[in-house]
Amino acid sequence: FFDTITVDVGPLQGVVLNAAVRNGVNLRKIGNSRIGVSVDEQTRPERGSESASGDQEGGGDFEIVVTTPLEDLQDFVEGTEDVEIEIPLDISEQQESEEQQEQDQLTLPSIPFLGELEQEAFTECVRRMKLINARKGDWIVREGAVGDSMFVITSGQVRVLKRLDERRMWQLAVLGEGSFFGEMALLRGGRRSASVQAVAATQLLEIDRELISELIERYPSVGQTLDRFMTQRLLRNVMNLCPIFTPFDRNERIRLIERFVMRPVEAGELLVVQDEQSDGLFVVLRGSFKVLRTMEDGKEIEVGSLHEGDIFGEISCLYKKPATASVKAETDGMVLRLPREDFDELVMGHPQMLETINKLGERHLSATLDKLAAKGVLI
Predict the structure, then answer these.
(1) Mean pLDDT (the chain, rounded)
(2) For the segment 142-190, what is each residue's pLDDT rounded down to a tens digit?
(3) What is the domain count for the chain?
(4) Residue 54 lies inside a defined structural domain of this protein
């Protein structure tokens, strides 16, 4: 049998309505669109007094989320402003798996890159996402693990942690409903750059590599949006991690980092060349870099490695001398560069930064000498 509901539709942005009904009317809200639903209680089937959402007594307003298209409605609502629609809903006996019922009750927050999708693609994307329920304290991703998916938080909260050493972890951010994470390892390949832990009961949607690749291929704006968010996250992480920025408050960190120039790096590229003066101070945003010392016999010795938040080129800039070692990109990555001609002006105007860079330069030089000595090389 059928139940007819009247839906007052406001401005629609790619909304697709779901014909599935459970315990009366089970319609939901998707993205930023809101649709009010009123139910004629006389024609409503006796499936129990509890409705899926809205008022339990009499007709009421419902917030709609939808997952599968009602084909007859799609063409009709496209481009409509304000209309009133009567929708016949088939509410005959329907068996759903426990997992599907849980997914049906999900209300998606506003998610920037999903807003780039057309109606059909949005529905397909939601259908193929995997629903994950994490308890407080559960680890969702671990730093160093291979990243083959990204996650969207639909409810709850997580914290992003970066390991400083064997005993200490640094909290980079706390993320809530509507936030997503894991896109860096997924888009750029490689391993997770941080760990993510649930700080409360949290519900997430997992998007695998195959799905995100298909979306980017069909909708380039999705990739552009993810790239933009990834860059913002890299900058925020560096502001929280890099010791030359951490002594300052957030506004001052932003002003300082705006003096740097962002630069992509390809694997194998030399950014600093031993015995030549560095052309600036560098901060690693993403990727892995080797610190190499070339000996008199031409042999290269690896004396260090650099990762997100590390700086290099500071010794050459600080002492106005040729670099004591070369720095080569081990992977594709991204760096921030403060041009050499701007170095003096910036650090002299910020004594805390100058002090930090001086200490880091001494520490890096000492570590290089120690590693060379351990290999039997004396300078």
Answers:
(1) 73
(2) 998 988 899 989 899 999 998 877 788 888 889 998 888 988 887 777 7
(3) 3
(4) yes
C-alpha–C-alpha distance, residues 9 and 35, integer Å: 5
CATH number at residue 300: 2.60.120.10
Q: How far is CA 255 from the centre of its chain?
A: 23
Based on the domain organization, do 236 and 259 belong to the same domain?
no
Single pTM value for the model = 0.60
Cα distances from 166 to residues 169, 170, 172, 359, in angstroms, run 8, 12, 17, 22
Which residue range(s) make up the domain with 71? 2-92
CA distance 323 to 278: 6
| Consecutive 10-residue averages of pLDDT for the chain (379 residues) | 36 31 32 36 34 36 35 40 40 43 49 69 80 94 90 92 83 88 80 91 91 85 82 85 88 91 94 94 92 87 90 90 93 92 88 89 82 68
Q: Give dist(CA 287, CA 290) in Å, integer.
A: 10
DSSP 293-341: EE-TTS-EEEEEEE-TT-EESHHHHHHTS--SSEEEESSSEEEEEEEHH
Residue 98 inside a domain? The answer is no
Closest among 251, 248, 257 to 355, alpha carbons compared: 248
Tell me, yes or no, whether 298 and 317 share the same domain.
yes
Please compute Rg for the chain using Cα positions: 27
The per-residue pLDDT for 197 is 95
Same domain, 266 and 205: no
**Assigned domain for 71 exists:** yes
Are 199 and 160 within 8 A, CB to CB? no
Is residue 302, in this structure, part of any structural domain at all?
yes
HSE-up (13 A, CA, CB side) for residue 259: 20
